[in-house]
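Attaching the record inline, Q. Sequence:
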Amino acid sequence: MFGQDIGIDLGTATVIAYVKGKGIVLREPSVVAVNNVTGEVLAVGHEARRMLGRTPGNIIATRPLRDGVISDYTVTEKMLKYFINKIGGKFLFAPRIMICIPSQVTEVEKKAVIDAASNAGARRVYLIEEPIAAAIGAGLDISKPSGNMIVDIGGGTTDIAVISLGGSVVSTSIKVAGDKFDEAIIKYIKKRHNVMIGERTAEELKLNIGCVYPKFQDMEMDVRGRDLLTGLPKTITVYSSEMLEALEEPASLIIDAVHNVLERTPPELASDISDKGIYMTGGGCLIDGLDKLIQEKTGINVMIAEDSISCVAIGTGKALDNLDNLDRSRRA
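Structure, as predicted:
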């Protein structure tokens, strides 16, 4: 196959890939199951996610990205190689790849992403900041001298940026996102019910009855965990009003970060934002009531972008169209 251009949203929780001309071709959890004796990769993606918390001693199911950056370089490289092969089989020419990164990563973290993708088979690697990719994917015209505000809540990081003329004017990236919501639920259930639940159960609670704004009707869900007093399995009923309490802290940290960016925004751009509103993208923005909460705390209209989970990958894919210009400017 001829060398393709691939856009990858290398997320802490999910990897989404976009191929030029085909759209989104891959959406898999960023989980890898490794034999820790031989170092052999046993499963990647959906298959590996099913193994989380259920493996024998010699197999570890890990997430090689934490808080939006690579925490296990070798495993990330193997995961990328697996996904690139899955997308295109064997390439006649190595593909050019554009990868999203959080807006506040260090040079060392950037280099780790570039090296991992190059070793996984990329001919050339480009990086794009997540909020910019999210804004493009949400259909915003960021090329004009006008302010657009994006709040991208992923698995590991929340990236908030005010974008004008194609670049970030003010931005911040905090390590509070989907994973921190899950951790807050685990901690709350342990403290309130004396029951230990796993990551997957916490995520199910978050998706089904999680909320950060009071609901009209209290919802409930039965979950199973380990009773910390007896050590035996136990089923408990959890209510959405409890989720509201459990998720209050991470939600308020995101609100604080939004405030912080608004405070640092130049007045002209701030008036643009109050006219246009704030756009939210990423899987984390789908927690019930988060848009209402931000709207209440800032007084600015908040919109959730269409297909918010795929926005960053779609934006990366659209940015691929400019790769030839980037290549020319590099040669110039």
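The chain has three domains: 5-132+312-331, 142-176+254-307, 178-246. The domain at 178-246 is CATH 3.90.640.10 (Actin; Chain A, domain 4).

More tomorrow.
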